[in-house]
Write a structure and sequence with these properties.
By secondary structure, this protein is α/β, with parallel strands linked by helices. It has helices spanning about 10-15, 20-25, 60-75, 105-115, 145-165, 175-185, 210-215, 235-245, 260-270, 280-295, 300-315, 325-330, and strands spanning about 35-40, 45-50, 55-60, 80-85, 120-125, 165-170, 195-200, 250-255, 275-280, 315-320.
Length: about 325
Amino acid sequence: MHSSNEKPVSLHSSIFHPTLRKWQSITGITSEKIMYPVFVIDVEDAKVEIDSMPGVYRYGVNRIVPELKPLVDKGLKSVLLFGVITGLSKDAIGISADSQNNPVVQAVPLLRSAFPDLIIACDVCLCAYTTHGHCGILRDDGSINNELSIQRIAEVAVSYAKAGCHVVAPSDMMDGRVLAIKNGLRKVHLDSTVSLLSYSIKYASAFYGPFRDAAKSCPAFGDRKAYQLPIGSAGLAARAASRDISEGCDMLMVKPGLAYLDIVHQTKQAHPDLPLFVYQVSGEYAMIYHAAKAGSFSLEDGVRETLTSFCRAGADCIITYFAPQILDWLAEGKL
């Protein structure tokens, strides 16, 4: 028996699903290597295009199954869900992040029922649900209260796990949140059937701008440089990955992708035994989309080259808004 403070090595949470097992071993660009980020909004029948990300939409819970079905039919294996709220309340601790009316909590069981083989990952953070727009709970002086933050993050992660997701993915960058989530999952006996994909190496990047528009998660004041990594740091990236591994994460992530290929390579070299994800973030999507639309290069060529660079650097799975196009190109034998 393990006490709640121990950090046992868990393999079961890495291999309970066929796609998880593929992430442990696959090579080359395949549908298993592509995860599709999806925004779920608290307007049931909505389908709203995001101005800063043409071709990317916010979907209401009544739209998400029919919108994803063609992609699943083409081979989509995994999605990463982000909640967006417009009617639900925002407050200082993100009370709507795990309420029964939260669009992610509502969407997960619908997706589990409609697509039994689809891996469903849920982003875990507070920024989209707080009035201040930061990723944790704040003290009166505006600084992060790390202890209260990781308690709340763990509560949200457990709620998503109870709703039926396969993977929880904390993106908050608080110290100790991986262990807090793992302990929370153990208490409800979900530690062997819910995997933890940690946003271990998340830089304070300029390339998140369109996402903050999409998720309505801009900070009300200040920035996130006190808890996201400085853009020039490599040693902190190594420390962050090692910290999360020591706390029991099943998979690692580097975010963004293109500007940090050296960090992708560094991380995979240091930790070859864990699947490594890279997030081709909203700003990267927008750059490639608009450059291709302007005729600088074909969209297919630009996306193919970036995917290849991620794989060459060591990524095992790529989170990308280009997933619908990639599935088509795979079917056509172009990738």
